[in-house]
Design goal:
Length: 650
């Protein structure tokens, strides 16, 4: 952690006053991204980031985040406390009031302010004030406690927000013993489309923040009714602990986590890494504590250096034989879990979601440092180094094999409709618009589905048996699998990195499997396949699962379908005076085709679930991480993390 800068003599003069809060009310999206759930949570990040800045500047190590029972949020830190003295240019107004009521008044933009502060927009707590119905401020400083409240007031047809109820008041001696700031706010329902915070979202962000800022303690307390929970995050190992956490319940390739940190004129760089025996890359990059999911210069510098260093190491020792004369980036990153965290004075966030670091000077800095320090690590850790080279070599061989397999499927599907898998019952319409591909478990179910379909727009692809677990297989094995080959050919958009969602031959892809445990497993496997190999299809909202019922029953002469056992019990209770005769479907193949059409295929009557990226991630996680655990642990995890994903099974 950075040491306290000397002469921390911030006072009112440092606070630059730029403008009032009106622009924030008018265009909230400009300041917090959106007024949906993401924007709502951004309010918390904004205050927490300020608190973290204090800690990183050497003031205080503990931050408390509380979700209050009444919908408010409290963030308490043990930093210096926002300055309370009167601003020389604004007689009668405290610096704290200016910080809370003027944009860009965090002191962060002037000299002597925070050099390395983050925040998506770095706009400070005044934005939180502007978007809240009420904000209570409590400052502990110089042994005193100061308080001020702000509210939104109606002025004619206009709403003014963040208006001080009274001047900042000295409420006497602080009994807290240390300095600090406590901000409590209630988000404005007129601004936000939803007001409910998701504990899982907050916890994840707080945990990452604790990993990135070694040694600070972040305490979370959810006081909302029926949500009560507390959690504490503190990691003395920083991002090395982060890597250990990400590789938890995966199988590490070697025991130690590699790590280096360095500070130079351009900025500070911290990197941690460990490989696991899996087949996917997990590189997570951050700039000033902000996740840069689109990557950027720090990611590029790291990747370049990693590839070069491993190639150099392998060549110097004659570890590369035969055809794999050189390892590519994708080869060396297979199974890699790594964190790259940089801190710099003037971060340029670019890209679609402003999560791509644009500073070019950081690329050469990270590249040079990684080359130096990671190479040294290879030298000093011969066994892990050898394991990494071996893994990368086998990835290179798999890549060649996968390329051949891909070319095969590509040649087959080169002509539209020609070379399609034999068992595909294609629809007659050629354009994708309005068409649907049903991926059906088993041949007999495939037969019923063929009878039940609308042949103009509905295509049926029966799959035999269990689908390969793509989390446990290398890409060449995946592509050599006959069922996956027919799936890839039928869908028509290619696979993996080359997947092109615009080439997909159907508007919707619908997974149709039995309502039992096996069917659930097949669903999880297929969703994970799409998540890993055709992600844009999921992102576009074009993947669905059909929900075949488990029972049918006649109630008052009318046939009703019952999705699962829980629903059956509910019905039995509702009709406890009658004897209901439930007929259980053994599987899709058992249904006659009108039943199948009504429940799964006819757009007017069927029940479909659109698969979100979040849900797909849950499936992936179950297959990659949790398969190693016992059934009870998995059930418990699904209960806690995905109870809304009803169709999931383990
Ligand atoms: C402006 C100047 C200083 C600190 C802060 C703002 C500050 C803001 C927040 C928001 C939440 N917690 C906070 N803690 C501090 C510098 C203070 C000094 O130099 O004494």
């Amino acid at each position: 952690m950075a040491a306290a800068k000397d002469g921390g003599d911030y006072n009112a003069e440092h606070i630059q006053v730029l403008e009032g809060l009106d622009p924030v009310r008018k265009r909230p999206g400009m300041y917090i991204g959106s007024t949906g759930s993401q924007g709502l949570h951004h309010l918390i990040w904004e205050v927490v980031d300020n608190a973290v800045d204090e800690a990183m500047a050497g003031y205080g190590t503990r931050i408390d985040v509380t979700l209050l029972a009444d919908g408010g949020v409290r963030v308490a830190d043990s930093g210096r406390g926002i300055p309370v003295d009167e601003h020389p240019l604004h007689k009668g107004k405290s610096a704290a009031e200016l910080v809370l009521t003027t944009l860009h008044a965090g002191g962060k933009f002037g000299d002597g302010g925070y050099k390395m502060s983050g925040g998506l927009h770095g706009v400070g707590v005044s934005v939180v004030n502007a978007l809240s119905t009420r904000l209570d401020l409590e400052i502990h400083r110089d042994g005193n406690v100061y308080r001020q409240s702000y509210t939104a007031v109606r002025k004619g047809t206009k709403v003014l927000s963040g208006v001080p109820v009274a001047p900042l008041k000295n409420d006497g001696r602080s009994r807290r013993g240390n300095s600090g700031t406590i901000v409590t706010f209630w988000p404005d329902p007129d601004v936000f489309e939803e007001l409910e915070f998701r504990a899982a979202t907050v916890l994840e962000r707080l945990q990452v923040t604790a990993f990135l800022n070694r040694g600070i303690t972040i305490h979370f307390d959810d006081k909302r009714k029926d949500h009560e929970q507390t959690e504490t995050f503190c990691y003395d190992g920083g991002i090395a602990d982060f890597v250990r956490h990400l590789n938890e319940s995966k199988e590490p390739l070697f025991k130690d986590v590699g790590y280096f940190s360095a500070a130079e004129a351009e900025g500070e760089v911290e990197v941690a890494w460990q490989w696991n025996t899996g087949y996917y890359e997990g590189l997570h990059t951050f700039a000033n504590g902000i996740s840069t999911s689109e990557g950027g210069m720090h990611a590029e510098g790291f990747k370049r250096a990693l590839t070069n260093a491993i190639n150099r190491y392998a060549k110097d020792r004659n570890l590369l034989k035969g055809k794999d004369t050189s390892l590519q980036g994708d080869d060396v990153r297979e199974g890699l879990t790594a964190i790259v965290s940089v801190r710099l004075t003037d971060p340029q966030f670019e890209g679609q979601t402003k999560t791509k670091l644009g500073n070019t000077e950081i690329r050469s800095l990270v590249e040079r440092l990684t080359n130096e320090r990671f190479s040294r690590w290879l030298e000093e850790h011969p066994n892990p180094a050898k394991a990494v080279v071996q893994k990368a070599s086998s990835a290179a061989r798999a890549r060649t094999a996968a390329k051949q397999a891909r070319e095969l499927t590509r040649r087959k599907s080169a002509l539209e409709g020609v070379g399609m898998p034999d068992k595909l019952a294609d629809c007659s319409q050629r354009s994708a618009e309005g068409t649907e591909l049903f991926i059906v478990e088993g041949n007999s179910a495939g037969g019923s589905a063929r009878d039940a379909r609308d042949p103009k727009i509905q295509a049926i692809l029966p799959l035999r048996g269990k689908v390969l677990n793509v989390e446990r297989a290398s890409l060449d094995k995946i592509l050599a699998n006959a069922e996956i080959q027919s799936l890839v050919s039928a869908i028509g958009g290619g696979v993996g990195k080359e997947f092109d969602v615009d080439k997909v031959r159907y508007e919707k892809t619908i997974i149709l499997s039995d309502a039992d445990v096996d069917g659930g497993h097949i669903r999880t496997l297929l969703i994970t396949f799409f998540y890993r190999q055709m992600l844009p299809l999921v992102e576009a909202g074009r993947l669905y699962v059909a929900q075949p019922p488990l029972y049918s029953v006649e109630i008052g002469g009318q046939k009703t379908y019952v999705p699962d056992d829980a629903a059956r019990l509910r019905l039995m209770e509702e009709h406890s005076n009658k004897q209901l005769a439930f007929a259980r479907f053994k599987g899709l193949g058992e249904m006659d085709y009108p039943e199948l059409a009504e429940t799964c295929m006819n757009p007017a009557t069927r029940s479909l679930v659109q698969i979100t990226v979040d849900q797909a991630e849950v499936c992936d996680r179950i297959l990659s991480v949790l398969m190693g655990d016992d059934v009870d642990t998995r059930r418990q995890w699904i209960q806690q993390n995905a109870k809304d994903v009803r169709f999931l099974d383990i």
